[in-house]
Design goal:
The structure holds 2 protein chains of 2 kinds. Chain A contains 12 helices and 14 strands. Helices cover about 35% and strands about 25% of the residues of chain A. Chain A is globular, with a radius of gyration of 19 Å. Chain B folds into 3 domains: about 170 residues, Aldehyde Oxidoreductase, domain 4 (2-Layer Sandwich); about 200 residues, Aldehyde oxidase/xanthine dehydrogenase, a/b hammerhead (Aldehyde Oxidoreductase, domain 3, Alpha-Beta Complex); about 250 residues, 2-Layer Sandwich (Aldehyde Oxidoreductase, domain 4), CATH 3.30.365.10. The two termini of chain B are about 35 Å apart.
Chain lengths: ~290, ~800
């Protein structure tokens, strides 16, 4: 369980990093927190001639609010996103979801940009990103572009990044005043990989829901928005019964793959449960606001 | 009939400092281990050391057409690549044969030749300047394999037309067993009811934190092979390696330094432990191999994997009359040395009647060969699955009769005045507190209150379950067990050597190594207690065959009874000499000499005294003053054998409270209670640690761990901790624990084994608790482990749909 030979590249500036990446993009793998990549390298599921280590690059971490966006630098550690008052204020759903990422020791190292780029369908932050229509900022020597999260994730562990691009920032929309949110997952053990995740956010007017966003992860190759569920909430008062109804709708609208450890039917049931629980959390934060 | 006239053995041990026993002395090994100063095999670095890795079979069953090592050899940094053909002459295949008449042998080459029989079987060994290069080269070894259909289930292996699994086989089984006692058929005919159920325990593994690891080095001056080996059994490893490598035992030295957990996995001898010394000898350079986690989970050994069909006969009043058991073990691809593929089956057949007063018993079964990782010992060998099976059945009987499960058990358990009890399974239970343990468990857990809470929470939509298990188990096996099995090594004794130096301080040399048990502490307590010297004046040494006396090592909860027994008896003999010398120096007769706090006094004359230290000084430094007939020697050795009987039988009862999530089937443990009785306790803190760790491992088996295979391809599916789930700190509830102290009549100090009870009883208790919770949904039979959320949820759905097959006894 040792990685194949590689060249370790450790630039210190963003420009330098992008230049290094541009040299041999197809032979270069980007190392952020290493919590997923390093085990994959050790098992030789990932082999690369060149490892571009972003850990010494200045200016890639940190969180700030710019206008209506919470800008999270790609190298921001999960633990910072979890505990930052800026994140808690601007995008509490993200902070809340971060608490479910692995164990504290993993969150101390793993990064927001890393988990986005890794694009694991069961990862918590991608689910939130899809739910909120976060923007993924990609940079290369050719320039800078943004992709909607829904367009960025193209398959399990697959994203729409060009080989010479690096994820440098993730932009989450700042929470509308009074919006309600919830995040739920089902994992067999605390800190273990979840089987499914659900993230919801909705606004309320006169006690009725509107602009609901619901995403689930782990029920397909990427986290997905559930349009039917969102419209089912529109203009209705969020109650426990409605949460259950939407959970059932969610279960019907996904087709998870069968796996040796988890059957399709069971995973579908878990989608029902986590969507309902995420909505129940939203209901609870509605109670608090009242 | 056995001769049990020696029901009580007086070993002549007198304890001079009773406060040393039953004392939670802090572990002397902890500053080293917790401070990160432990030394493991991985830490061993030798000049010029090379690193090995193994090329392992990617197929479950295939003929080997060719192993092409050309490209691998050419890689810079590669020193050698060995194949099965290269080792065929220089080593012998591992054969571990049991003596049963139905036995069929398996020969396991050190590196595969002709055929591979499980995914992970070593096929070639690459030796290079470092592990990185070795693994690079391993990927260049070309395997030409002709796939064969694998045997992946016991039913395939039991088919009458199965292809011979090993050369010359006539059936698909290593061995079949049967034993019968009492009028089984008669009792079944006259019973009010009978109930037949199948209980299945999954395949899972020991998974110590430190995997296997070997460093070997040949000394060119004397041809001594020194092997640093992460093993529980240094001397058995020496015998096994010597035998298979053709290197004489007196030129093999095993050093087992700190070992990071064993749990039975490291009491076997594996091919890698022979291949690495082979390479070191062939290349005349030190070679190191450290197992990685994928190898550990797929290529070391697995355990459990038992299918138990039980049929029980009982009366309306709750009396259990007779038991029939048919046990099928999935034993994997090879018989392991030295325990053989008869181990799990043989012990299960013997153990199945458990602590109950069955009047008749018929046990039979088969150990089936499959194209899976070989089956080996793991904490709670056979008892984990057997206890799960029997205790589930007993609970279902209670449910059918609408009796309280604790009351039903108490009615049928062997009473404490009935020992020694000859079990219909062939064991002799030495002593126990079966009913008392259950009573204490009910009291400490306040079952009535728990039941009330369960009803209240049910009204709030929560599904709480309360489950109990009780059992006894064989530990510190005497010769009888292994003699019956006819194994290559008949385990049943262990040795100690006790030496007092000129300053009166003592070193204990013993073979029973520690992999977390704290022997450096508990063994020192035994010596300090008899000699009445400070605890700090005793040092315990083990793990090096150059200094430790040859014995069997640490497994089967034998260290305190066997290793500790030999220490106590060697110390007794040393003390006898000290008493004689003290009497000489005090001009008193030995019978009149008393020992207190390291000082000898003539009885009734406490003003005159001589210290242990003064005696030691005289013996070593002024031996001219010794009385006639006394040698200048303060060293004793003892080899303790556990006769009579079939080992010591501790007992334990566990009660667990679970919460089942009706939405997902996820099981959460709310409360855990244990009453254990392993006889007099030397160090309660260590016993409690054993119970805590054991329960955690049982929780793993009950809820999480599963060495699952794809039955079509034969590929293992749980190859990393991504898919092989281990219990963590958050999965283990607070465990409340109480002790009873029923001594064994046979062992020195009456001690029994303590290491496995936590593990043995917890899957049974948890399964019973889950079954109890699921009764809130309807009729459902909990009959298979692990209780994953998906499996439990399936039970919920089935119960709700009223489609479950209820455990309905045959009407009479």
């Amino acid at each position: 369980m040792k990685p194949a030979q590689f060249q370790l590249l450790q630039p210190t500036t963003r420009a330098e990093a992008l230049a290094v990446l541009a040299e041999q993009p197809d032979e270069t793998v980007i190392l952020a927190g290493g919590q997923s990549l390093v085990p994959l390298m050790n098992m030789r599921f990932v082999t690369a001639e060149r490892i571009l280590d972003l850990n010494r690059v200045s200016g890639l971490g940190g969180v700030e609010v710019r206008g209506d966006r919470l800008v999270v630098g790609a190298m921001t550690r999960h633990r910072e996103a979890e505990l930052s008052p800026v994140v808690l204020d601007a995008c509490p759903l993200l902070a809340h979801a971060e608490r479910h990422v692995g164990y504290v020791s993993i969150r101390n190292r793993g990064t927001v940009g890393g988990t986005i780029a890794h694009a694991d369908t069961v990862a918590q932050v991608p689910c939130v990103a899809v739910a909120l229509d976060a923007r993924i900022v990609l940079e290369s020597v050719r320039g800078r572009r943004e992709l909607a999260a829904g367009d960025f994730f193209v398959g399990n562990l697959m994203n729409a990044r060009e080989p010479d691009e690096a994820v440098t920032e993730v932009h989450f929309p700042v929470r509308p005043v009074g919006s309600l949110f919830g995040f739920a997952e089902f994992a067999r053990k605390v800190g273990d990989f979840p089987l499914v995740t659900a993230a919801v956010r909705l606004e309320q007017g006169a006690g009725l829901s509107r602009s609901a966003r619901i995403a689930v992860g782990g029920a397909g190759p990427t986290p997905v928005r559930l349009a039917e569920c969102e419209s089912a909430l529109e203009g209705r008062e969020l109650t426990g019964a409605l949460a259950e109804e939407v959970g059932r709708l969610a279960a019907e609208s996904v087709s998870p793959a069968d796996s040796p450890f988890v059957s399709t039917d069971y995973r579908r049931n878990l989608v029902r449960v986590v969507v309902r629980r995420a909505l129940e959390q939203a209901l609870d934060c509605g109670e608090e606001l009242r | 009939m056995r001769d049990l006239s020696a029901y009580s053995v007086d070993h002549g041990i007198e304890i001079a400092s009773p406060n040393m026993l039953g004392a939670s002395v802090k572990r002397v090994e902890d500053p080293r281990l917790i401070g990160g100063h432990g030394r493991y095999v991985t830490d061993v670095e030798r000049p010029g050391m090379l690193h090995a890795t193994f090329v392992r079979s990617p197929e479950a069953h295939a003929l080997i057409r060719a192993v092409d090592t050309t490209a691998a050899r050419e890689l810079p940094g590669v020193v050698a690549v060995f194949t099965g053909e290269d080792l065929r002459e220089a080593t012998s295949a591992i054969r571990a044969d049991a003596g049963y008449p139905t036995w069929q042998t398996s020969a396991r080459p050190i590196l595969a030749v002709d055929r591979v029989r499980f995914v992970g079987e070593p096929m070639a060994m690459v030796v290079a300047v470092d592990r990185y290069v070795a693994e690079d080269a391993a990927s260049l070894v070309m395997l030409d394999l002709e796939s064969l259909p694998p045997i992946m289930t016991v039913d395939q292996g039991l088919a009458p037309d199965v292809e011979p699994f090993h050369d010359g086989w006539e059936t698909g089984c290593y061995v079949t067993r049967s034993k019968e006692s009492g009028d089984v058929d008669g009792l079944f005919a006259q019973a009010d009811h009978t109930l037949k159920l199948r209980m299945t325990t999954q395949r899972y593994a020991a998974v110590p934190m430190e995997g296997r690891a070997v460093v070997a080095e040949l000394d060119p001056h004397d041809e001594v092979l020194t092997i640093w080996d992460s093993t529980q059994v240094p001397h058995l490893a020496r015998t096994g390696i010597s035998q298979h490598l053709g290197h004489p035992e007196h030129r093999v030295r095993i050093i087992a330094p700190d070992v990071g957990g064993g749990f039975g996995l490291k009491c076997m001898v594996f091919p890698e432990e022979i291949a690495i010394p082979f390479a070191a000898r062939a290349l005349r350079r030190p070679v190191k191999w450290v197992e990685d986690r994928v190898e550990n989970l797929t290529a070391s050994a697995h355990a459990r994997d038992a299918r138990d069909d039980l049929e029980i006969a009982f009366n309306d009043d709750g009396e259990l009359l007779a038991l029939k058991a048919h046990v099928v073990i999935d034993s994997g691809a090879y018989s392991v040395w030295p325990y053989t593929a008869s181990m799990e089956l043989g012990t299960a057949v013997n153990q199945m009647p458990g602590p109950y007063r069955f009047r008749a018993y018929r046990g039979e079964g088969a150990a089936v060969a499959t194209n899976k990782t070989p089956h080996g010992p793991f904490r709670g060998v056979s008892r984990v699955a057997a206890t799960f099976a029997l205790e589930r059945v007993v609970d279902e009987v209670a449910r059918f009769l609408d009796m309280d499960p604790i009351e039903l058990r108490k009615r049928n358990l062997i009473r404490s005045d009935e020992f020694p009890w000859e079990s219909p399974g062939g064991y002799v239970f030495d002593s126990g507190s079966y009913i008392e343990s259950l009573e204490k468990l009910a009291e400490m857990s306040d079952v009535a209150e728990l039941r009330r809470r369960q009803r209240d929470l049910r009204e709030q939509g929560r599904y709480i379950g309360i489950g109990v298990s009780c059992f006894n188990e064989q530990t510190a096996h005497s010769f009888a067990e292994y003699a019956e099995r006819g194994t290559p090594v008949v385990v049943g004794y262990d040795k100690a050597h006790v030496r007092m130096d000129a300053d009166g301080k003592v070193t204990v040399f013993v073979d029973t190594h520690a992999q977390g048990q704290g022997h450096e502490t508990s063994y020192a307590q035994l010596v300090a207690a008899q000699l009445s010297i400070p605890f700090e004046d005793v040092r315990v040494s083990f793990g090096d065959t150059e200094t430790a006396p040859a014995g069997m090592g640490t497994f089967a909860s034998r260290s305190m009874a066997m290793g500790g027994g030999s220490i106590q008896l060697a110390t007794r003999d040393l003390k006898a000499k000290l008493v004689r010398l003290a009497a000489h120096m005090l001009e008193a007769s030995p019978e009149d000499v008393e020992l207190r706090e390291g000082m000898f006094f003539p009885a009734g004359a406490p003003a005159r005294s001589v210290s242990v230290r003064e005696i030691a000084r005289m013996v070593h430094l002024q031996s001219n003053k010794l009385p006639p007939g006394e040698d200048p020697l303060l060293e004793t050795s003892y080899s303790y054998r556990g006769d009579p009987g079939t080992g010591t039988f501790p007992n334990c009862a566990q009660l667990v409270v679970v919460d089942v999530d009706p939405d997902t089937g996820k099981v959460t443990l709310l409360d855990y209670f244990v009453v254990e009785d392993c006889g007099p306790v030397i160090n309660p803190m260590l016993v409690e640690g054993q119970i805590h760790g054991g329960v955690a491992q049982g929780i793993g088996g009950a809820l999480f761990e599963h060495s699952l295979y794809d039955e079509e391809s034969g590929q293992p599916l749980a190859t990393t901790f991504l898919d092989y789930l281990m219990p963590g700190a958050t999965d283990v509830p607070d465990i409340r624990l109480e002790h009873l102290y029923t001594p064994s009549p046979w062992t020195p100090g009456g001690v029994k084994g303590a290491a496995e009870a936590g593990t043995t009883g917890s899957p049974a208790a948890i399964a019973n608790a889950v079954a109890d919770a699921l009764r809130g949904f309807g009729d459902v039979l909990v009959d298979e482990l692990p209780l994953t959320p998906e499996r439990v949820y399936a039970h919920i759905l089935a119960a709700r749909a009223a489609q479950a097959t209820p455990a309905t006894p045959d009407p009479r």
